[in-house]
User: What shape does this take?
Amino acid sequence: MKVHSSKTKLIQDKFEQICRRHGLPVTIQRRIILEALLGRADHPTTDQIFEAVKGRAPGISRTTVYRVLKTLVRLGVARMVCNPGASVRFDPNIEQHHHLVCLHCGKMRDLDDPRLSGLPLPDARRTGFEITDYTVHFRGTCPNCRRRIKATHPSKVKKELRPSHG
Assistant: This one.
């Protein structure tokens, strides 16, 4: 889901207010990186955002992009999405939602499902762990990879693409 321009403007305004409240300057780099993130729906990595902004911000480094993305997360205008064995990704959608992750191409997409967002959480008194947020990641094979695998390796379709529950 790509963030629409009116929502983008609201997020940018909120970002500027949060920066001022925390005494952070609203730099060109921060604005450009936030814009690049808001314009994407693919949960980009630091490298993907760097590639998107380097032409607009000559001299910007990957390190700067990563630091700004971490700042956006800390300020609550983005989320860091971790996927074991893959690069950290960033998500401009800070609302409760979940993800579908392709094990073949690594693509990640949002999944909004109220049933998942209403899961009962373990009691902190029992676990000793106070949960403040959660996201569910479903791992499998996206439609594009299923078609590609089916076209190139028809015999693997039954074995590799059959859902397993375990």
Remarks:
- The beta strands are 79-81, 89-91, 98-102, 108-111, 137-140.
- The first strand starts at residue 79 and ends at 81.
- Helices lie at 5-21, 28-38, 46-53, 62-74, 114-117, 124-127, 143-152, 154-160.
- The chain has eight helices and five strands.
